[in-house]
Amino acid sequence: MVDIFAAAGVENPDISILSDEFLADVRQLPQRHLALELINQRRNLTNILSLYNNST
Q1: C-alpha distances in angstroms, 2 versus 43, 52, 54?
Q2: Is there a contact between 50 and 11 (Cβ–Cβ < 8 Å)?
Q3: How much is the pTM?
Q4: Distances, alpha carbon 51 to alpha carbons 18, 20, 48, in Å
Q5: CA–CA separation, 8 vs 17, rounded Å?
Q6: What DSSP assignment string belongs to 23-51?
Q7: pLDDT at 56
Q8: How big is the CA angle at 18 (ends 5 and 27), to the nearest 5 degrees?
Q9: Smallest Cα–Cα separation from 22: which of 10, 14, 11?
Q10: How high is the pLDDT of residue 24?
Q11: Contact 47, 8 (CB under 8 A)
């Protein structure tokens, strides 16, 4: 098994905010697709910044 984050030189994402309680709250939101998209965008931005910081 290959750790793709380690292979890319990126730290593993912190998924600690994705507790069962948090996910249950998101499921109840009428705009849950927007909440999930914001989480994805934040994760993507964090990865981009990490890659940039590792390259300088």
Answers
A1: 20, 22, 20
A2: yes
A3: 0.37
A4: 23, 29, 5
A5: 23
A6: HHHHHH-TTHHHHHHHHHHHHHHHHHHHH
A7: 57
A8: 130
A9: 14
A10: 85
A11: no
State both tokens at 34: 């927007």
Q: How far apart are CA 24 and CA 18, in angstroms?
A: 10
Instruction: Quote the tokens at residue 39.
Output: 């989480």
More confident site: 53 or 24 = 24
Q: Are 43 and 36 in contact (CB under 8 A)?
A: no
Token duo for residue 7: 């292979």
5-50 pLDDT per residue, tens: 777 777 777 777 678 887 788 788 888 777 777 777 777 777 777 7
Cβ-in-10-Å burial (0-12, 13-18, 19+) of 33 comes to exposed
